[in-house]
Design a protein that fits this description.
single chain; mainly beta; 1 helix; 55% strand
């Protein structure tokens, strides 16, 4: 599996960004049965879960992003998205896409989000 994240950039506080993660070298049945997640890692900090979404569409969010971020998936396109609204400087980090299925995981490269105050 290959995961390609995109959509990061520089945005002012209060702005929005939409991250995308495209899965390749996998088939629909595998992607659709996997849990997909977004994680982030700020400089000097540990990587943390931002949000994930199960194969059944159940979502889970870090407290710090609840109400501001929305994770979604399009199984037919093998894509997962993270809509980020009301961005704050503390959201500045490299954001990573993760795929987990039956105990196996794959990570994409990070896409950098920088929020200026």
């Amino acid at each position: 599996v290959q995961l390609q994240a995109s959509g990061g950039g520089l945005v002012q506080a209060g702005g929005s960004l939409r991250l995308s993660c495209a899965a390749s070298r996998t088939i629909f049945s595998i992607f659709s049965s996997a849990t997909m997640g977004w994680y982030r890692q700020a400089p000097g900090k540990q990587r943390e879960l931002v949000a994930d979404i199960t194969s059944g569409g159940n979502t889970n969010y870090a407290d710090s992003v609840k109400g501001r971020f929305t994770i979604s998936r399009d199984n037919a396109k093998k894509m997962v998205y993270l809509q980020m609204n009301s961005l704050a400087p503390e959201d500045t980090a490299a954001y990573y896409c993760r795929m987990e299925r039956l105990g196996y995981e794959s990570w994409g490269q990070g896409t950098l989000v920088t929020v200026s105050s």
